[in-house]
What does this fold into?
Amino acid sequence: MKTSTLLRFGHVAARYHLTGQRAPLNTMIALTDQCNARCAYCDIPARGRPGLESKALLRLIDELAEAGCARLGFWGGEPLLRPDLGALIDHAHARGLWTSLDTNGYLFPKRAQELQNLDHVVFSLDGSRTNHELNREAGAYDKVMAAIQCAAEMKKPFWTLTVLTRHNLGDVGMILDLAELTGGRAAFQVLHHPPGVASTGVGSLAPEPEALRDALRALLAAKDAGRPVAVSRGTLHHLITWPDYSQRCSYTPSRPRCLAGELWVNIDPEGQLFACSLWPDHKSPPNAVTEGFAAAFERLTAPPCRACLATCFTEVQGLFSLQPAALKEALVNLLPQRSAP
It folds into this structure.
């Protein structure tokens, strides 16, 4: 992340804690439900929504910039299925937004030249060839490896993101080796997806709790040893000590208030505005396109939970809560990635 973006995060987060003034500092837009992969833990493609028209998205980006957005992430579905993705990234870049992309990588080499203004890319990687294709389809591993190599050659900052399942806990070392070889970093998350996002059979992929904790402890040790683990120590500790992995959210009143809907938001392929993507079942969400973002944000309600298993939201919560360890982690991530040989 750019130093200027991190400084904006700190300034607006501090202002929020002093005055209560909200802003969509960190915004995720799901550009489409459509996807060219079929992951065992994901049911998003079944929704089938193609997403908003380009004109509406360009206007939405303008409104987000005016409302105080600093970081804009594109996800899906598979956002590279959108022919206008490059134009959307270029427009966000012109408005001063730091942009990121979550992708399976299949189309990344083909579209790479359109993505010069993209700041960061995250490739889904489920482990070894066997385990990656067990979760997806034949040929998927070679496609994501080609995407990673392409990003490395472009010197485009990238992470891999691995959902930890019962099948791939033993692949953590291999994933870190790959990150070191290619100059990237490796992020990890546990199964946490809500109904409508997770597949109906997702429970069969869950590791035994102690096996998962052992893998998370190994990641913490690897991070302490200087390996390219993109998850902060605070988040790893949060996941290791989570009491019940079958419960994706905590409602414990003693936990600090979650800042979802205060400093970060999620917009779905129909323009509906949510505090975060773990609450897509809100009965009457505001719509950032038909109402305009400012009006929709004004009536957005906070979720009832206090904490969750999502790596991304736990990281942002720590950062926007101005926790010293989270701020230190963000500063470390500003350091240049080691160039691949």
In short: The domain at 3-332 is CATH 3.20.20.70 (TIM Barrel).
